[in-house]
Amino acid sequence: MTKRIDLHSEQDTIDLAHYIAPLLGPGSVITLYGDLGSGKTFFVKALGAFLGIGEEIDSPSFVIFKEYHCGRFPLYHLDLYRLKDEGELLDMGLFDMLESGITVIEWPELAENILPYQTIQLRFAFDSEKRFVDVIPEAALEESFQ
After folding, report:
1. pLDDT per residue as tens digits for the range 63-97
2. Short-list 31, 9, 11, 8, CA closest to 19
């Protein structure tokens, strides 16, 4: 089931992160789809704050992934835009990340075939009038989003 949420302001994105954060734990995976400037990294910053991460979260575009161990759970923030094949994902230890912390993946298309089925998909988009996100939640979240 897909739920569309209008994002009228940055506060709406922060509220979305605040709602999702308590539902996450080790093994949780969130994939973030959307063009540049659609709000993916902003969402991760807000999510990290609600998970108790005090350090600055920024885009991992050039380093592929960043990890944060100062919150309630490890947070792994990946940007797969520059990767070419699934082998590169395995070489960087993707499965260890998936098992030991909360993993958030920007530009996740390359990893879709190897991610758990209960991955939460957030599809950020905007047009000339508004921003929105389509949430495709895992089964445990579906009732909350109805």
Report:
1. 788 899 887 889 999 999 888 888 887 788 787 87
2. 11
